[in-house]
Design brief:
Layout (H helix, E strand, L loop, with lengths): L26 H12 L11 E2 L6 E5 L5 E6 L12 H14 L14 H14 L3 E5 L2 H12 L5 E5 L4 H10 L2 E5 L4 H9 L8 E6 L11 H10 L3 E5 L14 H4 L8 E5 L9 E5 L1 H10 L1 H4 L6 H15 L5 H18 L10 E5 L3 H13 L2 E2 L1 E3 L10 E5 L6 H17 L5
Helix pairs in contact: 2-11, 3-11, 4-5, 12-14
Length: about 425
C-alpha cells in the first residue's frame, strides 16, 4: 500500500522522523519519497555522489544526472592521504593473498589472525597503554564500549557536540545522561557538583577533535575536574589521531595528559584511511571489553587485508613519516586564505575547517556551486548542528598542492560572493 500524500514545501528533512504510533510505520517513508520527488532541497543534491577513483587531492565524481567531472577533494577524512600510500597498499595485497578478503567469524571465535593481534599491540604501543581492542566499525565501537562500561545507576557526562555514536552508546547503556555546554568547563563543574554522593559510577566522555567544529576539547581541564569529582574519563580521538599533538598522538598528547585518560577510543576511518575502531587502555579494561562489548562479541572481525594496511599506517604515524608536517602546512594555508576572504571559520585547531553560513537554503546553493566549480566539500545541516550554525566542513589532505589550494580559494571567493556568503 502506497498512500497518496500531499506535497508540502514547508517541510524539512527532519520532519519525516517522528511518528505518533497511530499510523502505518511506512507513512513517513512515502511522505519523504513524495517530498524528495517533488522538490529535492539543494542541500541534498550533493549527497551520495560516486567517486570514480581512489580518494586523492583530485578525483572524478559522478553527479546524480550522470555527468562526470574532476574536483579538488576537500571532503575526505583521509587527512594524511594514506589510502594510496605504497607501503599500505602493498601490505593489503600481501595479506589478501595469504588470508583472503574476509575473516568469516567474530574475533573471539575464528576471526582473530596474527595480524589482528599485531595491530592491537601496535596501537597500544602508539598510546603507551597495556593493550587495545579492535572493532569492525568506528560507530559501533563507541556504542560497544559505553554500553559495556556503564549501566543503569551510573551517570555519563557529555559535551553537547559529541558524536552521535557516543550519545547512542550512552542511551543503550541505560545510564543517566548529563549534557554540558560545548567546551564549557564551568557548566561541567556545575553538573558535577550536583551529582549525589551515592552516584559513584561517573564517566566524562568527550570528542578530542569535534567533527563539525574542528576545535579541541580542553582535556587538561577535564581531567582536573574528573580527579576532583572522582570521575573516569573517555576521549574519542577519531579526528585527532595522526593529526593533533607534537607526534600525532592526538589531543591527550597535545594537552600532556595521556596517562590521565582512562579510556582512549578512536576510529580507523579518518587519518588512518580504512574502517573500524579501537579502544586502548589497561589490560584489565581491554579484557573486560572483549567479553562485555556486544558490538565486538557479536560482530565479524575486520578483514585481514584492512588490518595489514593499518599496521603499516600506525608504523608510519609512529615514525612521523605519514606526512603530518605537510598536512599542517596545508591546513594553515587554507585556513588563512578562507579567513582573508571573509569566511567564518570558527575556532578550528585541526584538519577540519568549518565555513559557517547560517542559512540552509543559501548553504545548499553554495555547496552545489562550489562542487560544480570543481571543489568538493561536505555539507553540515541540522541535526548535526543548529540551523543558524549550518556550515560546510572543509577537510584538508596532506597531498593537496599549492595549485589545488589557490584554485579552491578562487572558487570559494567567486561562489561565496555570488551566493552572498561573503561580500
Amino acid at each position: 500500500m502506497n498512500p497518496t500524500i500531499a506535497h508540502d514545501e514547508s517541510k524539512r528533512f527532519e520532519d519525516f522522523v517522528s511518528t505518533d504510533g497511530k499510523t502505518d510505520i511506512f507513512r513517513k517513508v512515502h511522505a519523504l519519497d513524495a517530498f524528495l520527488c517533488a522538490n529535492t532541497p539543494d542541500y541534498m543534491t550533493g549527497l551520495g555522489l560516486q567517486i570514480m577513483g581512489p580518494v586523492a587531492h583530485r578525483v572524478d565524481v559522478r553527479e546524480h544526472d550522470g555527468e562526470i567531472h574532476e574536483v579538488i577533494m576537500m571532503g575526505s577524512n583521509s587527512y594524511l592521504s594514506l589510502t594510496t600510500h605504497p607501503r599500505v597498499v602493498a601490505a593489503c595485497k600481501a595479506a589478501c593473498d595469504r588470508y583472503g578478503y574476509g575473516m568469516g567469524a567474530v574475533s573471539l571465535y575464528a576471526g582473530t589472525s596474527r595480524l589482528h593481534r599485531e595491530l592491537e599491540q601496535v596501537i597500544a604501543d602508539f598510546y603507551q597503554t597495556e593493550d587495545a581492542i579492535l572493532f569492525p566499525c568506528g560507530y559501533s565501537g563507541n556504542v560497544g564500549v559505553l554500553s559495556a562500561l556503564c549501566r543503569p545507576g551510573d551517570v555519563i557526562l557529555n559535551d553537547s557536540a559529541n558524536h552521535a555514536s557516543i550519545f547512542d552508546g550512552c542511551v543503550l547503556s541505560g545510564a543517566a545522561i548529563k549534557v554540558y555546554l560545548h567546551r564549557n568547563m564551568q557548566h561541567l563543574e556545575k553538573i558535577l557538583k550536583g551529582l549525589p554522593a551515592s552516584q559513584q559510577g561517573r564517566l566524562i566522555v568527550t570528542d578530542g577533535v569535534f567533527s563539525m567544529h574542528g576545535d579541541l576539547a580542553p582535556l587538561d581541564r577535564i581531567v582536573e575536574l574528573a580527579e576532583r569529582y572522582r570521575c573516569r574519563v573517555m576521549v574519542d580521538e577519531a579526528h585527532g589521531v595522526g593529526v593533533v599533538g607534537p607526534t600525532g598522538r592526538g589531543t591527550p598528547e597535545k594537552f600532556g595528559c595521556t596517562d590521565r585518560i582512562d579510556v582512549i577510543y578512536g576510529t580507523l576511518s579518518k587519518a588512518p584511511g580504512a574502517i573500524g575502531g579501537y579502544c586502548a587502555g589497561s589490560a584489565a579494561l581491554i579484557r573486560y571489553l572483549r567479553y562485555y562489548a556486544r558490538t565486538y562479541f557479536f560482530s565479524t572481525s575486520m578483514p585481514a587485508p584492512v588490518v595489514a594496511g593499518l599496521i603499516e599506517v600506525f608504523k608510519l604515524m609512529a615514525e612521523d613519516a605519514a606526512g603530518r608536517a605537510n598536512l599542517w602546512a596545508n591546513v594553515r594555508y587554507m585556513r588563512a586564505g578562507l579567513q582573508a576572504l571573509g569566511f567564518q571559520t570558527g575556532e578550528t585547531e585541526s584538519a577540519i575547517i568549518p565555513v559557517i553560513v547560517g542559512d540552509e537554503e543559501k548553504l545548499g546553493r553554495f555547496h552545489c556551486e562550489l562542487r560544480r566549480g570543481g571543489v568538493f566539500t561536505s555539507i553540515v545541516t541540522y541535526p548535526a548542528v543548529r540551523r543558524k550554525e549550518c556550515r560546510l566542513r572543509v577537510s584538508i589532505m596532506s597531498d593537496l598542492t599549492r595549485e589545488d589550494m589557490d584554485r579552491a580559494l578562487a572558487v570559494f571567493a567567486e561562489v561565496g560572493r555570488s551566493q552572498a556568503v561573503i561580500t
